């Protein structure tokens, strides 16, 4: 039987869980969604969903993981609720799909680190992105990124995930702080801050329902909800820790880095007159590449930015891969090394279409974030709120002082408002997925 590991330190768990949340979702996906959705109005909707929906669901995943000490699918069997294990299966599927195209974007980041050093994208950023985002190069660097991530997961929880997170997350913060500080000195930074931080009240209230699907999908993506990461990570925890305290710390770290990424990115765009709403998934490559190409320190700044983006991408990627590897090792009694290799190859193969045509990447992204993650979160809220409320509340109180009233509020948030919000978001997510799939096929 494969020996189960655990976190060496509380800091290791928090940094690894925060690292899963702090990834391409914060630095790649968040800025372009913010730009496409009107700036600060989207930011406000996102923050409200992170607190009102994200935190209760993070705690729900923590409760299931720590109480079961099992992988995302085996957890429901260990809890005596094997008829609900399809929720874990949906989460594992979501992670599988997300990592298949996430690794493609990770490959782009590696290419842009090299290009920042050589200046390859400075003459025509849009043309350069087109040349590296699809085709043989995209596939090759996708494979390289997956191999790097798999190498960390093979080392295990303490020697791989925990050590990598302890180095990479502080490094990402330092690099983004340096970039944000430099960006604040640029002419046009004030316009960038206004776009990012000054919401149009009429847009916020007039388009609130229209903002919900993308904002909810982003909240789930960036907090790694609905894909089993928090269940898996909490399963390596001891009983003496306050899940609420850990959840709050992770939420604050994740949200702070997302905000910091915007503070770093938008001043660069506005300083060079680059429209932040252009580029879609390629925003941090095309738009920022255009901005970096226009000022003298562009190569150095670009290198620092893409190195930070690479580390953020890796911390999320190895957490998603760990979810599926944990299931394989525990369910089929397979050693970690062959399990990791086999899962990584399967994910790489699934992602090849997204490295050939960006329409597939968009379709995968919409399917995963607006259907699979939201659907998984909805089912999780129903399970903990209605089928596992007493046991869930008991587990939440473990490691806390008191918490009776808090537990009751948490359960009723899961039972009613969160279920209703996610049903609404899921409806529009299904419509968006149908459109995206139609465009790709």
TrEMBL record:
Pfam families: SNF (PF00209). SUPFAM superfamilies: SNF-like. GO terms for molecular function: symporter activity. It is a multi-pass membrane protein. The chain crosses the membrane at residues 7-28, 40-65, 86-114, 134-157, 169-196, 216-236, 248-270, 304-327, 339-358, 370-389, 409-434. The keyword Iron does not apply. Its main location: membrane. InterPro entries: Na/ntran_symport, SNS_sf, YocR/YhdH-like. Keywords: Membrane, Symport, Transmembrane, Transmembrane helix, Transport. It is found in: Membrane. One of its GO terms (cellular component) is membrane. PROSITE patterns: NA_NEUROTRAN_SYMP_1, NA_NEUROTRAN_SYMP_3. Belongs to the sodium:neurotransmitter symporter (SNF) (TC 2.A.22) family. NCBIfam families: Na_transp. PANTHER family: TRANSPORTER. This is Transporter.
